[in-house]
Amino acid sequence: MVNYKQLCSRCKKNYVPASWRDRYIQCYDCQKKELSTEIENKDFKKLFNIPEEFYKKNSFLRDIKLKYIKSI
Fold it and tell me: Which residues contact 20 (CB under 8 A, 6 or more apart)?
């Protein structure tokens, strides 16, 4: 799969790795506030307790966490 860098759709400052499948691309800095929401469920809290570096590098992990937070 071919990856390329594209500017963040929100801030237009940071470049983010993207592919042809990605529609709305956001950098970690733009999503940081939403990702910092506290998770109350013990099982999911344990699941999402991974190093911040992984969230910075992987948009898929950020997407999973954001979808869980929005579903609460």
Answer: 2
Residue 36: φ, ψ to 5° = -80, 0
Domain ranges of the chain: 4-71
Q: Which of 15-24, 26-35, 37-46 has the lowest mean pLDDT?
A: 15-24
Name the β-bridge partners of 7: 15
The span from the CA of 26 to the CA of 47, in Å, is 23
- Structure confidence at residue 55 (pLDDT): 95
Q: Which long-range contacts (CB under 8 A, 24 or more apart) does 66-69 make?
A: 66/31, 66/34, 66/35, 68/39, 68/44, 69/34, 69/35, 69/37, 69/39
Count CB-CB contacts under 10 A for residue 15: 12
